[in-house]
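Hi support team,

I submitted a single chain yesterday and got back a structure, but I'm not sure I'm reading the token output correctly. Could someone confirm the output below corresponds to the sequence I sent? I've pasted both exactly as they appear in my results page.

Thanks,
R.
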Amino acid sequence: MQRPFFVFEVMQTTLLCSPMTKPLLLVAILLASTNPIFSQKTVAPEVQLLTRTSTRREIRRFNYGGTVTLIAAPRGSVTVEGWTRSEVELVADIELKGPTEAELDQLATVNSFVFDEDLNHLSILTTGTHDRTYMKRSAKNFPKKLLNMPWKIDYRLKVPVNTDLEVNAGHGTVKLSGVEGALRVSATESDTALTLTGGIVTTTVTAGSITFTIPARSWRGGGADIRIASGTINVDLPAGFSGDIDADVLRTGKIVNAYEALQSREKPGITERTVRARAGAGGAYFKFTVGDGVVNIRKSAP
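Hi R., thanks for writing in. Yes, this is the structure output for that exact sequence:
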């Protein structure tokens, strides 16, 4: 019977080895199998990025009842407060990262924001490497190696109390307080905190948490529609609050009702999946929807 080729080779090797060299050969084979030889390549050291932070402050005259739109950066926080002045104040902290100072200068020319002003509408638009349309139009020869450099802008915005507001945010915290217009807020991944006493509020967050706090016993306006795809909605109500509340869990999760004054308004009443309830004498309408997660209805601290 003809032996396979690889067996023949082993036999030949054995016949050529003397008894003295067999242990050495075995050790060599074991070392070769446990320590494979890698080609010697020079590993490039990791580039340490420089960080540059700058602050930009802008003020615009603005009448009550107008609309302010903020298209925020892909990463960064947004804080909006209502005040009594007839003007909009914007403070932006811009953080850039790049290999060299010269390249940071290049990034600073595109990663920023611009104003678009109309008679009764002020838009704050973030520009940067994330916007392909903008880059093709305004920075055609921009170095490709800088397109993925990390950067962020933290916005702090003050607007008149009776202002209609639209905020489109990315990854970062969002805080709104003291505004009573028509408010529309959206974010990709955020811990969002809304402390409001009136208006018509629509908020949608893909992932994270939303804390909706009403510090007053009654709401001035139509109410709120708060939605999150995955995460937690916390609803903090004061003692003696009046309003109609609906809550739903669409897929997985539950509703935790710790607000004792909440009473069933219609079927199915108050369950771990659905709430149709009334607080006090009723009034403004509030709807809370979570895809996967938890809705906590709580009594706020005095």
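A quick pointer for reading it: The chain has a mean pLDDT of 88. Let us know if anything else looks off.

Best,
Support desk
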